[in-house]
Amino acid sequence: MATGTVPASFTGLKGRDSSIGFAKSMDFVRVCDLKRFKSGRTRISVIRNSNPGSDIAELKPASEGSPLLVPRQKYCESIHKTVRRKTRTVLVGNVAIGSEHPIRIQTMTTTDTKDVAATVEQVFTPLVEKCKKYGRAMRIGTNHGSLSDRIMSYYGDSPRGMVESAFEFARICQKLDYHNFLFSMKASNPVIMVQAYRLLVAEMYVQGWDYPLHLGVTEAGEGEDGRMKSAIGIGTLLQDGLGDTIRVSLTEAPEEEIDPCRRLANLGKRAADIQQGVAPFEEKHRHYFDFQRRSGQLPMQKEGEEVDYRGVLHRDGSVLMSVSLNQLKTPELLYKSLAAKLVVGMPFKDLATVDSILLRQLPPVDDNDSRLALKRLIDVSMGVITPLSEQLTKPLPNAMVLVNLKELSTGAYKLLPEGTRLVVSVRGDEPYEVLDILKGIDATMLLHDLPFSEDKVSRVHAARRLFEYLGDNSLNFPVIHHIQFPSGIHRDDLVIAAGTNVGALLVDGLGDGLLLEAPDKDFDFLRNTSFNLLQGCRMRNTKTEYVSCPSCGRTLFDLQEISAQIREKTSHLPGVSIAIMGCIVNGPGEMADADFGYVGGAPGKIDLYVGKTVVRRAIEMEHATDALIQLIKDHGRWVDPPVEE
């Protein structure tokens, strides 16, 4: 029987007298006796302390035989720096998985597994021979969308249910003295995936278990979307030292998964090898196991202001872009690059329009055309941010001014006209007495601006420290994560680094947007990457969300071809999620978050789903895409594609 402490935040349980009262805080209490009752349609375990003097916890869930999992504080080795979690070694053939070994990478065969010759050719005969010689290892994996009815009745389709489901199988393995296994928590939603792994490891710390972890965001999709989702989920956990083998699950040829796997593994290895981190600090405000977004105060209109600043940030997450003087020479091209709508050459904001721009150099005061282009952006509530030195020498009316902590401490910003909007750049690792100047400043937003080339300080841990400081001092400035990438960085490295360093914060609700810069990268690529990152973190939806499996021997149609066809006709539906699954074995379960499903039901036949419910069966493949569109229309989720001007 498991023993331990129970936090007072476990949702849905409450008691009186000697029972435990579950509140919002993460305070901990000791319990020793468990009693159950049934309330309404939900079975709830109420823990009652029949011996207030004891500090031993004897925990049981509503189902007999397995301990109830409860959240604990510790889920990684260090919250101050990247320290890889210690695990035992599991042998898969002669490949060792665990903390004493490099992070392993995986892919999957796409052949029909009944075709022995083709499968053996793809996975290499020596691997099979060594598996026979050394025995087999097991991976205990839980799928967010395929939990049993029994688990669902107690926990719902939650991260906690995923962990309890996996632990049931692990306990059987332990009873049989079998330990050559590792864990996997499968979810297509990176936020759910991160929470599930953290809960899993937190419980393993309590149980004294040290089994390795396989990391992956299941059904991540294809292209940059798939790589971004994987970077958010896998990269976040690697930054906390969690993970021993990884897979980037792409709807592409299996060999295409290897490259992003290597890039992620190298990122995690580098962080752990050089012990990136910050000085220790007490963490009280971040929620490890459930998503609660920090509420940064969005700009409010002030009396006497000539323009509307309320649109310079977006409530669901903001995208900022760096603009050059050259781009101002062709205003209409600039407006289109910012994804603004044009009406008679005038820009207007839309759902996927950039919210604010950073202009490191202002045009000369006599460059009327460039200044008119900026004025038109400001007039539609797009923020224009420029450095203090530029604004003092070539002032632009209604611009927001970028200052650093030194310029605040010296009072240089006081040379600006009264009421000028300030944007403050901070690293996050400054001494607290330096950060204290923020207490007396009315800033529109902060830029978290740790240089990308910084070796010893982790951007993720520095930002966590900054948010703790802001929380401790009741400072609710919006925070924009700013990364300046060097010239020559590979596009995939940029996507993975952004997903890891920014995604690791946004999945914890820490941050209000991002600004990505790379001097030699295409403007549209940086803008799309930024919006993809926000959508991958379940913040701002600007296009259709796709969940698509990576293909395997069971796939009943060409996934890449069909995915491309469906995307071409449906990509303009923000807020709608569509699952494209090769077969019914894992498809209905792994598309848990999707609104609509396109699933191979038999050779040449497609089944259509609404949520997890099949609504049409055995549609001829040539008619299935049109039937899917009609299904979306029938449920009131369709809009016609916008007409290009």
From TrEMBL:
GO terms for biological process: terpenoid biosynthetic process. GO terms for molecular function: 4 iron, 4 sulfur cluster binding; 4-hydroxy-3-methylbut-2-en-1-yl diphosphate synthase activity (ferredoxin); iron ion binding. InterPro entries: Dihydropteroate_synth-like_sf (IPR011005), IspG_atypical (IPR017178), IspG_bac-typ (IPR004588), IspG_C (IPR058579), IspG_TIM (IPR058578), NO2/SO3_Rdtase_4Fe4S_sf (IPR045854). It comes from the Eukaryota. Pfam families: GcpE (PF04551), GcpE_C (PF26540). Coiled coil: none annotated. Residues 545-633 form the IspG C-terminal domain. Gene3D superfamilies: Dihydropteroate synthase-like (3.20.20.20), Sulfite Reductase Hemoprotein, domain 1 (3.30.413.10). Residues 87-123, 125-261 form the IspG TIM-barrel domain. Its cofactor is [4Fe-4S] cluster. The keyword GTP-binding does not apply. SUPFAM superfamilies: Nitrite and sulphite reductase 4Fe-4S domain-like (SSF56014). Keywords: 4Fe-4S, Iron, Iron-sulfur, Isoprene biosynthesis, Metal-binding, Oxidoreductase. PANTHER family: 4-HYDROXY-3-METHYLBUT-2-EN-1-YL DIPHOSPHATE SYNTHASE (PTHR30454), 4-HYDROXY-3-METHYLBUT-2-EN-1-YL DIPHOSPHATE SYNTHASE (FERREDOXIN), CHLOROPLASTIC (PTHR30454:SF0). This is 4-hydroxy-3-methylbut-2-en-1-yl diphosphate synthase.
